[in-house]
Design goal:
The chain is an all-alpha fold. The longest helix has 88 residues. The mean pLDDT is 90.
Length: 91
């Protein structure tokens, strides 16, 4: 038994151990993915529901409030303009 034989033995053992570790990591990754997949699907469904809710809130609440605020702002600007005309006449 010379050094070449030990070298070949170490290379074979290293290759076998590396193959076993890669297979073990693959199995762990698959198990982890299979456990996480339902959570990801649930998150997708929740995200879609949340997007629908925000869209509805935007259409049903925000737009009317903005329109009302714009109307009030326009009325106040009109009143300010009219009051400026009356103030100038009094001077």
């Amino acid at each position: 038994m010379d050094i070449g034989w030990f070298r070949d033995l170490v290379i074979c053992i290293f290759g076998l151990v590396t193959t076993i570790v890669v297979i073990f990591i693959g199995v762990l990754a698959y198990l982890l993915f299979s456990k996480i997949k339902p959570v990801l699907n649930s998150m997708r469904a929740t995200s879609a529901t949340l997007q629908e809710i925000t869209s509805t809130v935007k259409d049903e609440v925000v737009k009317p409030v903005v329109q009302f605020a714009t109307l009030i702002r326009g009325i106040t600007q009109g009143i300010d303009l009219v009051s400026r005309f009356f103030k100038r006449e009094e001077q």
